[in-house]
C-alpha cells in the first residue's frame, strides 16, 4: 500500500512567517502571506481540500459557496457545507444572495453560529440558473440593490471583514466592475476581487488583466485582488507586477495541484519555482487527499468525491486511460490506495504540459437576465427569492 508520508509531496511546513519586506495582504485583522486567496469552488473547496492546500503553503482558504436564504431558513445541507475543520483559521466562507435583509441575517448567523472570521460575497457567478434570476454576476448591474446587499452584509458581520468578488460585467456592453468596486469600498468591504472576464465569457478566452489594473486605480482604500488565468506561481507574480493589485485569487490552477501553494510561497520569496513533481509526489498527495475526504465524509462518500479529482491530478502525465479509469472505479479507500501503487513513481510531466489550463473552460455564451432587468440600474427592489437558493461559482 502506498506510503502516505507527506514529505513525499514536499509541502512547506507551517507556520509561514513573512519577512518585513515580503508582500502581505491585510483583510481586516488578518495578515495574509503570501498574498494569495484560494477561490471558492463548488464541490471542491471543502474542508479536506482546504486543509490539504494549507499543508503545502500559506494564504487565505475560502470555503465553497453557500446560499444566504438556505442558511436563514435552516437548511441542513447549507449548514453542512458551512462546516470548518477543527483547527481551521481564519475561518473563511463565501456567501451568495440577492436580498439585503436575508444577506444581513445570514452573515450574522455565519459569524455568531458558525464562527466565520471572514465572509466573501459572490457577485461573480456566471451560470444561467443564477443570472436569470438577477443574481451572481448580474446583480451589480442593479447598483443600488448591490449597494444595499453589501451594506447589509457588512453590518451583519460586525467586526468580521467582508469582501466582495466581482466579474467585469454581464458582457462588453454592460460592464459593472468600475461602479461596483467603489460602491463596495464605500459600504465597508475589506477588499474587492475581480475575475477579469465577463459573465458572457464564462471561463473561455483570456482573462483581461488590464481590467484589474483599472479597478486598482478606482479603489484606493482597500486591497484589490486579481483573479483569472493563474496557472503557475509565476503568473501570480506577473499579475501583481502588471496590474498593481494587492494579491491574487487562485481557482482552477490548483485543481490536482495543491503544491501550487508551495510554489507561490517560493515565488514570493524569490526562490525557483514552477517545477512539476514526478508521479511519486502526486501519488502521495492523492493518498493524503483520499484519507482526508474519507475521514470527513465517511468512506463511501469520500471515495466518490475524490473521483473528480483524479483527472486533475494526472493531467498531462503519460499514465494512460486504463490507469485513470482503474482509479476512478475504486470503491473503497484501501482499493484506491492499492491501485495508486500501480503507477510508476518515476514518471514525469512533459515540459509542454507544465502550466496547462485545467478545469472547465466553457463559454462564451449569452447571459440570461430577468425581463426588464436592464432597464433601471438604480432600482433597489429585491429580486426573485429563488436566486438566493441557487449555487454556482465565480
Give your account of this protein's structure.
With 394 residues, the protein is of the alpha/beta class. The protein folds into two domains: 280 residues, Alpha-Beta Barrel (TIM Barrel), CATH 3.20.20; 75 residues, Non-ribosomal Peptide Synthetase Peptidyl Carrier Protein, Chain A. It has 14 helices and eleven strands. It has a nine-stranded parallel β-sheet. Helix 11 packs antiparallel against helix 14. The protein is globular. The N terminus is likely disordered.
SSE blueprint:
Elements: E1 25-27, E2 30-32, E3 36-38, H1 47-56, E4 60-61, E5 66-67, H2 68-72, H3 76-81, E6 92-96, H4 100-114, E7 118-123, H5 128-131, H6 143-157, E8 162-167, H7 177-186, E9 191-195, H8 209-218, E10 224-227, H9 233-243, E11 247-250, H10 260-268, H11 279-297, H12 299-314, H13 321-328, H14 333-340
Parallel strand pairs: 3-4, 3-11, 5-6, 6-7, 7-8, 8-9, 9-10, 10-11
Antiparallel strand pairs: 1-2
Helix pairs in contact: 1-11, 4-6, 6-7, 9-10, 11-12, 11-14
CATH topology of the largest domain: TIM Barrel
Which outline best applies? globular
Total strands: 11
Percent of residues in helices: 25-40%
Spatial separation of the terminal alpha carbons = 38 Å
CATH architectural name of the largest domain: Alpha-Beta Barrel
Q: Sketch the topology as an H/E string, one letter per element.
A: EEEHEEHHEHEHHEHEHEHEHHHHH
Going across the biggest sheet, name each strand in turn. Answer: 4-3-11-10-9-8-7-6-5
The number of helices is 14
Q: Give the name of the CATH superfamily of the largest domain.
A: Aldolase class I
Contiguous low-pLDDT stretches (5 residues minimum) are 1-20
* Secondary structural class: alpha/beta
Radius of gyration: 20 Å
The count of domains is: 2
Amino acid at each position: 500500500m502506498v506510503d502516505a508520508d507527506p514529505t513525499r509531496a514536499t509541502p512547506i511546513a507551517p507556520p509561514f512567517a513573512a519577512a518585513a519586506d515580503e508582500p502581505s495582504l491585510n483583510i481586516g485583522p488578518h495578515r495574509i502571506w503570501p498574498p494569495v486567496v484560494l477561490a471558492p469552488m463548488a464541490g471542491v473547496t471543502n474542508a479536506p481540500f482546504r486543509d490539504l492546500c494549507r499543508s503545502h503553503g500559506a494564504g487565505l482558504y475560502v470555503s465553497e459557496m453557500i446560499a444566504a436564504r438556505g442558511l436563514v431558513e435552516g437548511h441542513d445541507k447549507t449548514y453542512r457545507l458551512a462546516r470548518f475543520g477543527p483547527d481551521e483559521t481564519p475561518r473563511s466562507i463565501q456567501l451568495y444572495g440577492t436580498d439585503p435583509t436575508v444577506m444581513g441575517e445570514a452573515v450574522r448567523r455565519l459569524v455568531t453560529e458558525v464562527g466565520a472570521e471572514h465572509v466573501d460575497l459572490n457577485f461573480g457567478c456566471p451560470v444561467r440558473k443564477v443570472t436569470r434570476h438577477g443574481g451572481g454576476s448580474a446583480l451589480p448591474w442593479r447598483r443600488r440593490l448591490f449597494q444595499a446587499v453589501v451594506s447589509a452584509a457588512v453590518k451583519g458581520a460586525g467586526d468580521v471583514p467582508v469582501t466582495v468578488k466581482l466579474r467585469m460585467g454581464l458582457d462588453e456592453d454592460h460592464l459593472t466592475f468600475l461602479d461596483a468596486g467603489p460602491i463596495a469600498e464605500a459600504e465597508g468591504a475589506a477588499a474587492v476581487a475581480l475575475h477579469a472576464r465577463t459573465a458572457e465569457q464564462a471561463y473561455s478566452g483570456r482573462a483581461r488583466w488590464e481590467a484589474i489594473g483599472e479597478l486598482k486605480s478606482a479603489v484606493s482604500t482597500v486591497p484589490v485582488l486579481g483573479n483569472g488565468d493563474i496557472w503557475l506561481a509565476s503568473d501570480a507574480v506577473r499579475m501583481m507586477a502588471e496590474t498593481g493589485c494587492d494579491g491574487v485569487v487562485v481557482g482552477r490552477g490548483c485543481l490536482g495541484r495543491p503544491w501550487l501553494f508551495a510554489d507561490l510561497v517560493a515565488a514570493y520569496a524569490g526562490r525557483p519555482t514552477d517545477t512539476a513533481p514526478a508521479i511519486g509526489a502526486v501519488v502521495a498527495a492523492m493518498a493524503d487527499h483520499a484519507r482526508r475526504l474519507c475521514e470527513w465524509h465517511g468512506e463511501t462518500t469520500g471515495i466518490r468525491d475524490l473521483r473528480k479529482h483524479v483527472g486533475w491530478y494526472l493531467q498531462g502525465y503519460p499514465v494512460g486511460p486504463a490507469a485513470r479509469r482503474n482509479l476512478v472505479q475504486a470503491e473503497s479507500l484501501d482499493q484506491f490506495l492499492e491501485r495508486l501503487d500501480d503507477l510508476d513513481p518515476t514518471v514525469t510531466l512533459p515540459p509542454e504540459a507544465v502550466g496547462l489550463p485545467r478545469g472547465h473552460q466553457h463559454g462564451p455564451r449569452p447571459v440570461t437576465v430577468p425581463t426588464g432587468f436592464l432597464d433601471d440600474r438604480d432600482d433597489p427592489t429585491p429580486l426573485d427569492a429563488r436566486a438566493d437558493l441557487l449555487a454556482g461559482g465565480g
